[in-house]
Design goal:
By secondary structure, this protein is mainly alpha-helical. It is built from five helices and five strands; from the N terminus they run ααββααβββα. Strands 1-2 form a two-stranded antiparallel ribbon. Strands 3-4 form a two-stranded antiparallel ribbon. The protein starts with 11 loop residues before the first helix and ends in a 5-residue tail after the last helix.
Length: 169
Amino acid sequence: MSVIKRHFQVNLKGMKLMQKKIDNLQNAMPQLGQRFIEMSLDYLYERAAFYIESSTGNGGYEPTGELLAGLKKDYELGKVFNDCVHAAWVEYGTGMIGTGTHPNPPTGYQYDVNAHGEQGWTYLGDDGKFYHTQGLTAHRFMYNAITDYRMNYKKIFSQAFNEVVGGAI
């Protein structure tokens, strides 16, 4: 973050000017917090969308657009989420194939809930054909977006600070 340097004369006029700048900075803090949240959510949303688009559609996974359409952000609640019914399966993987492919699965997440093991299972696709699978590797679209955010949140904060506070002092 850049350092803002201001010079003030040590006299009554200079002290009043300094107090005004401090008051302006205090008044800008709620706006700064909200703007940082908005910019953070925008960044996470864009990165998650990028990872959905770049990691799905390879292998046995057929992209339908539902996963990308399910990606949402809520500024009031301060969260990015995916309300697609199969989002967790794509994020964390499924079956024997998915086991161990996500670095941080939630506690209690089960990869092989029906104990199919290495035999896998057969299912009827939307196209009326039967398919056999042993599962799906994790696509980690949210995990990767959060990892990117951890490397860039200071830059995002600096941008929010300059946008909101830059004119206040």
